[in-house]
């Protein structure tokens, strides 16, 4: 047996000794007795422990499954950590002063000892079932959706009825007599993943963000110790969820609850793997303990109405509601990833106001925002508001696509199942790595790029894939997973294992991901760098992007599996469109260019206008002389579908000024009604074009380029929309009085006249009309939405989103239900019993999204 681990009696002896040495800190009690007569021990830790039950509390339970020894071992080591550090560690002191820790190191003592002394992988307790079998899975014996199972020999047999077992009754009775419990952690192995509680449906709960942030911040503490990253995965409601678990029982009682699955083996190498797991989870448990008070009646109430006021391509304005209190301020957090920690690294605002504008954002990118209220005196924080997700608008020159692989273009190929490899496509999930059954398995994802014009410039590209299960990755810190771009033209059959396995990559995307950073339940993202984006732009001609996903190819002696499972969103057990691999692209369409010559040139003196001649400077009296040019597009470019991307005005100088006087020349884009001295002098300047040209530069070269900045480029578009000519003034300036300082610019009759070059793309500027007449009704137990729309040749489709808490103001502000041309959809992912908001947006091929049409669906209850 594994003698490095503490036995149950060792644990009791240690806790009794700890209580004797630290009676002000530790209290030990039995909360029940097992079938075999062992006490179920609970240790209470707090400063001062006499008042422990009056403080907000964290409940820790371990080893409810007998073979999962980490729960008991971590508990022992955490108690020792508290004893060794509470006197001088300010964070620990603060956590123990404000909060209480209730810790049941082992909730299954009989099974634990049976596992230690006879059968290592025993899971259940030791109830005599009376039919020759023993044991009940205690984590199926709570009354949270308890499910009867007649197979008493099953490892997941839940017992004859809910709370049939003394162990579950003991923890139930303790919880129900301690209303101060605010957070519950249930420690298991294996998987390196958090499993937050759920309510057996697809609807987002008000506490959903609290659960994810608690896990993400614990994850952050873990990563600081070992670099390991745990997954965060709530399962796939409403099917395939465990029933009768303690986690859901706690959650139903209003306790923020999560299972923590640790390590990659139930009983790992103690000195190497278990010691790492303990070390990384100690600060995570301490963090969770410190948060208990933030979910107690002492905490400020949750911020209400946290929503999006407006979204631009580089900024977003958020707003919320709160009672007027001088003692409250707000913390706003922002991340580019879901399930990210909310801490100093992501804190973007501390404010007293009820709004916040976040700027300098990337266009066409997703952002996640969280907010909580803080008491400025006590520093106690509120629970989190439901997380906001949005995507910034596209910049004026940009287009975007989110591409999904077709069913037949995503799957995996196995070395040992080559005859059935085609069946692995479009069916359930991808298995990538190596195991005894399949041999080496590789994933294949092919995207159709035909909707993107060849010659487009790829500005941003991100590949996303969802890891749904890492239990079969059984070896700690072994192997790396990577994504390679293959030459699709060289692969005749994507279902041919040898062809895919032996293909030489055109490029491997970004960094490989090590096994202990391959998280379950958190989207993996590969961001294309500049070289990779250039390669992708070249592949637009092939109209396909073929990716190969691979992991380790060999197993160490005695190991049987190192495989990650990824969702593909297809098949009866795929999780649907929300979980499909996807490629997000932001790009600029191929540019076209206009080269314009001046429609007119004039030199404007104080007392005359000289046509067809372009000069500027100062006359013999020192009065300024203006040069004036006008250009006309003289081509039919549709205003609504023309976006100017670049512009440059090129002029040539015929001479420079003889004197050494510092005379400089600027070009202005102007509004001009008449070409005479008085009107030019009183002109309405729009913007300078480029930078001024000095006399010295005139001597050095004759050709001068004036580049339009972003503002002047948009003004050029405005003038195009108004169908007016483009007027430019060349104006001279001098640091002191200048006379007889005139520069002649190219005459309009010259062979090489001045040129205005304008690059442009054909891109719609504004959204199509919003849909209207949005209605809901329940059909066959499912909410059906219908709407009408205005006919528009540029309409591509409709985007439907659901939000439990407020009307969606962005197409990404909630759960996506549909994207397509139909005028109806079904909410197959929710329940008609619960109230919610729906919104429908129209979109074009850019896509530009219309303003939403929204509706409140009252449900059968307001819960």
UniProtKB/TrEMBL annotation:
Residues 299-395 form the Fibronectin type-III domain. Its cofactor is Zn(2+). This is carboxypeptidase T. Its EC number is 3.4.17.18. GO terms for cellular component: extracellular space. Belongs to the peptidase M14 family. It comes from the Bacteria. CDD domains: FN3 (cd00063). It catalyses: Releases a C-terminal residue, which may be hydrophobic or positively charged. It comes from Pseudoalteromonas rubra. Residues 4-285 form the Peptidase M14 domain. GO terms for molecular function: metallocarboxypeptidase activity; zinc ion binding. Keywords: Carboxypeptidase, Hydrolase, Metal-binding, Metalloprotease, Protease, Signal, Zinc. PROSITE patterns: CARBOXYPEPT_ZN_1, FN3, PEPTIDASE_M14. GO terms for biological process: proteolysis. InterPro entries: CARBOXYPEPT_ZN_1, FN3_dom, FN3_sf, Ig-like_fold, Peptidase_M14. It is an enzyme of class 3 (hydrolase).
